[in-house]
Every structure is written in C-alpha cells, then in structure tokens.
Amino acid sequence: MTSSTPDALWSSRAVRLLHPAAVVCEGLRRRVPGGAGLDGLDLSVPVGARLLVAAVPDAAGSLLVRILAGVARRHGGRIRIAGTERPDASPAGWGRRIAWVGPEGGLYPWMSAAEVLEISARLALLDRATTRERIAEAVERWGLGVGLHRSMRRVGLGHLQRTAMAAALLSDPEVVLLDEPLRALDPDERIHLLRLPGSRRTVILASRYPASEAGCVNQVALIRGGRIAIHAPITALEERGLPLSHRGVAALLETPVVPGRASA
Predict the structure, then answer these.
(1) How many domains does the chain have?
(2) Which strands form 98-101's sheet, in the order they lie side by side?
(3) Scanning 122, 143, 165, 220, which has the fewest C-beta atoms within 10 Å of its C-beta?
C-alpha cells in the first residue's frame, strides 16, 4: 500500500498498522559511464522514515535522490512518491507534497532570503495569512534574521544553504529529498537543523559521509552494484556494535538482517 491523500490513512494509528510507503522504486535503472548508475533498484520507504542512503560508488546515492526529485532522468523502472507516479499542478499535487534540496542550494545570487521565501510561498499557493506565519517561523528556525534582505552573493554559503532548506519546507511537504545538505554549517548545528519535525514526514538523505548523519536518521540503505544491498533500521547497527559508516553498514551483509522494508 502506498501513501495517499485521505486523512484516515495518515492518522497515527493507520500509519502504525498499515505501514504505507511514502516512496517506492521498482526496477529503477539509469545508465552512467563509470559504473555509478542504477541497475534494477528496488526500494520501499515507509511514511515517517528518516532514511540515509549510502552508496558504492558515492555518486549512486546522489543520483537516486535526484531521480526521485525529477532533476535527473531514469532509463527504466517505476517510481511512486506520496502515492502517485506523475507530477500534477493542483494545489494538493505532487509538486506541493515533495521537496528537494541539493548541495549547491540552487538559488540566484541576486535574490535575498526574503525574496526566495516569498516566491516559494506563491508557488505553493499559500494564502497571505499562512505565508506570513510560515515565513516568520522559517526565519526563526533557520536563523535567517541577519541578512534576510541581503542578496545571496553578500551572505555566506551557510546562509544560502539554510535559505534553500527553509524555502523547500515552506509548503510543509510530505517527502523531503536531500542531497548532501547544509555542509557549510557547523556539524552540531547541521544535525540539529536536519532533525525535521513531523511524524508523517519522510526524509531521504544521500550522503558520502554516513557517520556525519548520526542522530538525524533512523534507517540506512546501501547501494552497491546499482541495487539496494541492504536496507535496515539504525538499531541493527547499534545492536551489533557497528558504526554508522560504509564499513559498518556493509558488515550487516554478513549478519542475519532482512533487507527491504525497515520500520520507521
């Protein structure tokens, strides 16, 4: 069962009992010279999961997130995100229900954080009252007060990355896709900000440095040879005294952990 709009499905009891999937990949393929592609990848991520995607080679994790976000093409396979396979432009559509943030932020250098947030609110079709409320909350949470009206070229990379995250989350998306986010920030601040609130929100985070994500994820998946080699809860590592690292996750392959769906 995949996620859907009806509130009944998203109730805490329904999520516990039905385990709806927020993101599903079936036979996902993408050919890439050098072997960093995807080759029949299957993945099911339940609602509310915080999934870390590690990969060998590293680029495969980023590629998966970019394909899910629609900024990279796939050559085969099926994807369902937030219960649907196709984007649509409706107020409650796919484009309003997911968010993606890459390592560069993707913001124009001449824009200010205030302008970015205002445009994001318009794209999300928020009314004026909701826009004011959510922008005020975003400025507070992401520390954008200083430099709020300065252009991106006049503030540091950390401010730009925080702005990109704030803008992406302004629509309160169900699924958040992150590719090496907030690397310009202090590690402790970064982890604090990546602990995104919302029990029904699903986060997929691609990272070349798994150890740096400890504390903001509860599942881990390893891509090897273009496929999911293992998908397990973080507790599987903790129970075996293994570190959250490429080596630690790979060591789970030698232990009786069942790959596939992990509990959120």
Answers:
(1) 1
(2) 98-101, 175-179, 202-206, 50-56, 219-224, 227-233
(3) 122
